Write a sequence for this structure.
């Protein structure tokens, strides 16, 4: 018998939803994207500028996060803005992990500082 793959699980299945979330969180770049979005939304270009990978690769990571229900996108003119889905229980868990994860803490601080700068007149 073959193992069940990520694509074999029904979209409406709660097991499938959990698998999509764990798949999304299994990647370090995707966890970094979540950390960058922790304090404020960013455009796709702003997210891509923070990585040394191609824009299509960043786009694929964003798509996986969106499919997992962790982020949302909103088209505003020619730009696509991404933000966390804040009321998602998984994001609460991710926030906890960022606090104890050595790589997440500095990224979260950077994101918070950026958000404070945006709030200044």
């Amino acid at each position: 018998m073959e193992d069940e793959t990520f694509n074999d699980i029904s979209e409406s299945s709660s097991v499938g939803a959990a698998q999509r979330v764990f798949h999304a969180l299994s990647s370090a770049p995707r966890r970094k994207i979540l950390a960058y979005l922790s304090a404020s939304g960013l455009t796709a270009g702003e997210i891509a500028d923070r990585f040394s990978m191609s824009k299509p690769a960043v786009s694929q990571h964003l798509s996986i996060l969106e499919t997992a229900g962790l982020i949302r996108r909103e088209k505003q003119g020619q730009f696509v803005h991404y933000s966390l889905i804040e009321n998602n229980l998984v994001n609460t868990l991710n926030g906890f992990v960022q606090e104890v994860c050595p790589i997440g803490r500095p990224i979260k601080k950077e994101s918070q500082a950026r958000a404070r700068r945006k709030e200044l007149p």
User: Anything to note?
Assistant: The longest strand covers residues 71-76. The helical segments are 14-25, 28-36, 44-48, 55-67, 89-100, 104-119. DSSP finds six helices and three strands in the chain. Residues 1-12 have pLDDT under 50 and may be disordered.
